[in-house]
Specification:
This protein is α+β, with helices and mostly antiparallel strands and about 130 residues long. The chain is built from three helices and ten strands.
Length: about 130
C-alpha cells in the first residue's frame, strides 16, 4: 500500500457566513459545488483541492496550496460581504492544520496527524468539520 500525506487547513474568518446568500460561489471561486445545504458548501477545484465553507464562519481547505487559500478567502470576503457577519480583522490569524496520512495498516490519531488506511469523501468532510470547529 502506498503512503500519501495530505494537508487540511481551517480558518476562522467570521462569526457567521450565510450559505444561502453565496450565489454563484462556484463561478467566483472557479470550483464545482459538490454538496450544498444551509450549513455548508463543499466545492472541488480542477486541480483536486477541496473547499468547505461552514455557516459558523470557518473555511477548510484540503490539499490546496497556501497561496490559493488566501486568494479564495479574499475573494469570498470581497464578493460576499453581505453574507458574512463579524469578519475577522486579520483573516489569516486564526487557523489550524492537520495532516492526514493514508496507506497505514492501523488508524491512529496523534496531535497533528491522522493515520488511516484509506481516505474517502465522507472522512475528509468530517475531518474538515471537526478541524473547523
Amino acid at each position: 500500500m502506498t503512503s500519501k500525506k495530505n494537508l487540511i487547513v481551517a480558518y476562522r474568518v467570521a462569526e457567521k457566513i450565510s450559505i444561502r446568500n453565496l450565489n454563484n460561489i462556484d463561478v467566483i471561486l472557479e470550483a464545482t459545488i459538490i454538496r450544498r445545504s444551509s450549513e455548508e458548501i463543499e466545492l472541488h477545484t480542477s486541480n483536486g483541492a477541496r473547499i468547505y465553507i461552514f455557516n459558523f464562519g470557518s473555511i477548510a481547505f484540503f490539499n490546496c496550496p497556501r497561496v490559493k487559500q488566501k486568494q479564495i478567502i479574499n475573494k469570498l470576503v470581497k464578493s460576499f460581504s453581505n453574507a458574512i457577519s463579524g469578519a475577522q480583522v486579520d483573516l489569516f490569524a486564526i487557523f489550524d492544520h492537520l495532516y492526514i496520512k493514508t496507506g497505514e495498516e492501523k488508524t491512529r490519531v496523534d496531535f497533528d496527524i491522522i493515520m488511516m488506511s484509506d481516505l474517502d469523501n465522507d472522512a475528509i468532510r468530517i475531518i474538515a468539520l471537526i478541524l473547523s470547529h
